[in-house]
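User: I'm curious whether this sequence folds into something compact or stays loose and floppy. Could you predict its structure so I can see for myself?
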Amino acid sequence: MKETLKYLAGVAGPSGFGSSSTADQVTEDCAFSFPSHLTAIVTGATSGIGAETTRVLAKRGVRLVIPARDLNKGHEVKERIQKECPNAEIILLEIDLSSCASVKRFCYEFLSLGLPLNLLINNAGKFNQNLEYSEDKIEMTFATNYLGHFLLTELLMEKMIETAERTGIEGRIINVSSVLHSWVKRDEFHFNEMLNPKRYHGTRAYAQSKLANILHAKEIARKLKARNAKVTINTVHPGIVKTGIIKGHKAFTGMSYKNFAFSLYSLFFLASKLLKSVSQGASTTCFVALSPSLVGASGKYFADCNESSCSALASSDYEAHKLWKQSRALLHKQLFQSSS
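Assistant: Here's the prediction. I'll summarize afterward.
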């Protein structure tokens, strides 16, 4: 109850920021602390939190690479940002995060540009009300929200480590998750079932993918530390934001979460003024990406621009390592099959 009241009041935490802070506010001083000419890849940058994250990073002098499934939307975002920031450098490349072949193609195109890579922001999120499969025959929400970002991170990791070694600037990877990860129970989190669910529910699939994002960051943080790499990875919860994802969640019904369904939908309707704005939703991502106070912080979970706690399942080293092994084996199989 105390935390809820602090959230609603926008009380600042140890970082000096809270739920009411905007992305512009939390990065105001970062431009003077971080070196210029950083390069960032931001997925899901054509709308919502991703578009705002991209705008604010461009405003702070960061070169942006936007992976877009819809290049027309990508051009619209680019034009809007360059109207505000005429000197912004923005590169558009095509990607479909649900497709292993497309992610691989994007990484090849990006690496062929010869650019450094300082920031990788795995922001894109998809909510499917009905069961749908990717071209790789994987449930679409899991394929897009988790596996696509897993593969993207795997294929760009060495570039980030090399950039950090060469420049001395810490690289940062950020996975955008959700508080809904805490709804997932251990007996509901089975890899093969998430790939091909026998009984599908959109909210469960979304929550499972967001739990997987946290476990991914936890395991990659351990591996980066073991390599003594100057690259960190953290997870953020943006809050409940007025974006397309919320509209997609209008039918929070079914599964063991059904007790939350009507009340949650009603809460969104009646308390919509309490939902975060897009700029407030992007604040934690931008803060974790640029704040000099977080140098060396890795494997953490942040909400409202402050370190927070995630569920016990999301904190499990065993589950994190098991999921990484299963994901890597699957993706290597998919890439091998597609190239044979």
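Summary: Confidence is low (pLDDT under 50) at residues 249-262. The chain has 14 helices and eight strands.
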